[in-house]
Write a structure and sequence with these properties.
The structure is a single chain. The chain is an alpha/beta fold. About 35% of the residues lie in helices and about 20% in strands. It has a 5-stranded parallel beta sheet, with helices on both faces. Helix 4 links the parallel strand 4 and strand 5. Helix 3 packs across helix 4. The termini are far apart. The mean pLDDT is about 95.
Length: about 160
């Protein structure tokens, strides 16, 4: 079974992230959506809310699992016996960063990185843009996957 490891903060998980998962499922048997825990960042949505929301969202899809991890991404991907790390690229800036990370991860563990270019209509969508829109009271539901619901929290993404 070929498994791919999809790391990120997913704060929040957007339609762009969901698109990458769906596209990766055409290439791999399983996608592990891995929420990285960065203790230096508070996060907009609490980590347990992100985890629960994604577990609920993908509960009917046995080919998608959700995990939390700390530390070096490549190390955790290897522990889960992933064949590769999945990254999405929206721009040249993203590409340059992901190229550096792919090289480091390959040096550290030998794991390869698979880059999927974002679908053009999703290129402007990022978690940081969605957070900013929410901050200014804009409706963010068009940027979140239909059916994704976060547990009640004072930072609940909503319109």
């Amino acid at each position: 079974m070929k498994r791919i490891f999809f790391p990120g903060s997913f704060d929040p998980f957007t339609i762009g992230h969901a698109s990458l998962v769906e596209r990766a499922l055409t290439l791999f048997d399983e996608v592990v959506v891995a929420i990285g825990i960065n203790e230096n960042k508070a996060g907009w949505i609490p980590i347990d809310g992100r985890y629960q929301a994604l577990c609920d969202f993908y509960h009917d899809n046995p080919r998608v699992s959700v995990t939390l991890y700390k530390g070096i991404t490549a190390d955790h991907a290897r522990r889960l016996d992933a064949a590769a790390i999945l990254r999405g690229v929206r721009s040249l800036k993203d590409f340059e960063y992901e190229l550096q990370m792919a090289d480091i991860n390959r040096q550290l563990t030998g794991i390869e990185t698979v880059v999927l270019f974002t679908e053009p209509h999703l290129a402007p969508v990022s978690s940081s843009v969605v957070r900013e829109l929410a901050h200014f009271g804009k409706d963010i539901t068009p940027f979140l996957p239909a059916g994704l619901h976060y547990p009640s929290t004072n930072k609940q993404p909503q319109s």
